[in-house]
Amino acid sequence: GFNRSGDGEGGDGGGESRRGGRGGFGRKTDDGGEQSEGGNQGEERPRGELYIPPPPPDDEKSIFATMAAGINFDKYDDIPVDVTGADPPPHITTFEEVEFFESTKATIGKCGYKRPTPVQKYAIPIILAGRDLMACAQTGSGKTAAFLLPAITKLIKEQVPGGSQAETQSPQVLIISPTRELTLQIYNEARKFTHGTMYRPVVAYGGTAVGYQLKQLEGGCNILVGTPGRLLDFLNRGQVQLDQISVLILDEADRMLDMGFEPEIRKIVSNYSMPETGKRQTLMFSATFPEEIQRIANEFLSNYLFLTVGRVGGATSDITQRIIEVDEFGKREKLSEILSATGVDRTLVFVETKRNADFLATYLSQESFPTTSIHGDRFQREREEALRDFRSGLAPVLVATSVAARGLDIPDVKHVVNYDLPNNIEEYVHRIGRTGRIGNQGLATAFFHKEKDAPLARALIKVLSDALQDVPDFLEAAAEAAVGTNYGPAGGRFASKDYRQGGGGGRGLKGDSSGVGNDQGGFGSFSESATGGFSGSAAADEDKWE
C-alpha cells in the first residue's frame, strides 16, 4: 500500500509544531497527536510509529558520493552577484585562496569540488571574516557547502574541543531548517565536511523516536541540525544548552517564517542562554527574501551583508520550461502521454493535495510507470523509503506535495512536472529548481488550467521571459484577461534588493567586490504581523507543516 494517515509526529512528545495555511490548521492534542481543522474535515490523527532510521553509511565512498557538474557549469562565471552592506571582504575565485586546514582541503578534494560556485565565492570569505550574512541564491547553487565549510573551519581555527559524551550538550553551531528532509540533507553534508576531524554533527527532527535521537545527542555534539519543533523539545528537556553557540544558521529562512515558525524561531533565538545578536554570528540562507521577511530578519542579524546571486527568485536558463494548457480532467492522461514520450528517468511530479498524491501514484503505477509518493501524512520511515527508492531508480517517478518542494537534494532530477501549479510564483521557481542543478540540463513541464491558474499567468510570463523561454499564446491571453485583478505584478515579492537600500541596492558585481552600497543603519520595531501571514505556497498540503 502507498500511504497511511499520520506521519509519526507526536506520541513521543517530540512532534513538530505546525501552523496552518488555507488548507487547514493542525493543533496539538494532549497525547502528542494532532487534530486537523479544515484540511482533513476534523479527522483525528493516530499516534505515529516510533521510527528509528537506518544508520548513515560510514564508508568513505558513500559519504562522498556527489553529483557531477554538468556541461554548463562554466556559465556560472557570468552570473551577476550583488553585495550590499559595509566593508565586505574580497571574494575568492578558487578554494586555494582560502586558508583551509588540511582536513578541509582533503574533504573538498574528495567531494570533487574543482572551484567554488558564485555563492561560495562570496559567502565563504564573508563568513570566515565573522560577518553576519543574509544570502539569496538559486536552489542548487551550493548554499550548504557555502556555510558549512567556513563554520567547520572556524571550529578548527578556534581549537574547539570535539564533542564528548554528556547528558546535556552545548553545541557551537546550530542550523535550523523548516523540513525534515532538508534537515537530514544538511546533516549528511555536515558528516561529509567533518570527516577526518574531531567534530560531531547531530540531527534532530520529528517523526523519529526521541530516545534514539537523544542517545545520538548524548554521544557528543558540535554541530546541531534540526527542525524548530524537535529542537524546542530538546531545549525544553534540558538536553541542549545554547550558551556556547558561535554560529547560528537559518536555512530556507523565508519559508520558515512564511510557514508560521516565527514564534518558534524567536523563542530559540531569545532564550536558552543563546548569545544575543551581535555576540554570535548569524547566517540566513534562502532562495527568496521578500522585504517583509528582511525586516523581521533584521532583528536577528547585526551589521550584516546582503548577498544575492543571479536573479533572486528567478529560474536558471539551464531548465527548459514548457507550459501546457489542459483542463482538470485531462491531466492524468496528458501526464501518461508525456511520460511515454520523454521517459520516466528521475521525474518529480508536484500535486496540490496529499490525497491526489496517492491517487496519482497508484494510477501511474497501474500504467506501468513505477511510482512512489511523499507527503505529510506518510510515516517518516515511509517518506525516507520513498526518497531512497526514487534516488536509487527503483521508483523513477516521485509524486510529491510541497513538503518536498524546498531544499530537497535529489541528485540529477531530469524532469519536474507541475501537475498542479502552486498559488505563487516563488513556489513554482523552487519546484522547478529540483532539476537543472549545478549546471546540469533539466526539463520542467507545467499543466495550466485557464480558470484556476490565470492569476499566475503574468508572473509565469516574466519567469519564462527572463530565462529566455518560449511564451505560449494561451498564456499571453490568460495574462491579458487577468489584468485588473488584485494579484499584483509578476514576481512582486521577490527580494531582488537589500531593503536597507530603499529600493536602490548595491552595484551589480561580476568578479568585483568593491563599491557596494553602505549599510543604512538600524530600523525601528516591526509588528509581528509584518510577515503578511502565509504565502499560500504549501497551504493545500492541508495541516501538515514540517
Automatic annotation (TrEMBL):
List the residue ranges of the region (Disordered): 1-61, 498-546
- Helicase ATP-binding domain residues are 124-307
Instruction: List the top taxonomic levels of the source.
Output: Eukaryota, Metazoa, Porifera, Demospongiae, Heteroscleromorpha
SMART domains according to UniProt:
DEXDc, HELICc
* GO MF annotation list: ATP binding; hydrolase activity; nucleic acid binding; RNA helicase activity
Residue ranges of domain DEAD-box RNA helicase Q in the record: 93-121
Q: What is this protein called?
A: RNA helicase
Q: What keywords are assigned to this protein? A: ATP-binding, Helicase, Hydrolase, Nucleotide-binding
- The EC designation for this entry is 3.6.4.13
- Asked whether the keyword Endoplasmic reticulum is assigned, the reply is no
Q: Which family does it belong to?
A: Belongs to the DEAD box helicase family.
Q: What reaction gets catalysed by this protein?
A: ATP + H2O = ADP + phosphate + H(+)
Task: Pinpoint the Helicase C-terminal domain residues.
Answer: 318-479
The record's section on CDD domains has:
DEADc_DDX4, SF2_C_DEAD
The record's listing under InterPro entries reads: DEAD/DEAH_box_helicase_dom, Helicase_ATP-bd, Helicase_C-like, P-loop_NTPase, RNA-helicase_DEAD-box_CS, RNA_helicase_DEAD_Q_motif
Q: Which SUPFAM superfamilies match?
A: P-loop containing nucleoside triphosphate hydrolases
Low complexity bias (residue ranges): 525-539
Asked whether the UniProt record includes Cell cycle among its keywords, one would answer no
Motif Q motif in this chain: 93-121
Enzyme class of the recorded protein, top EC level = hydrolase
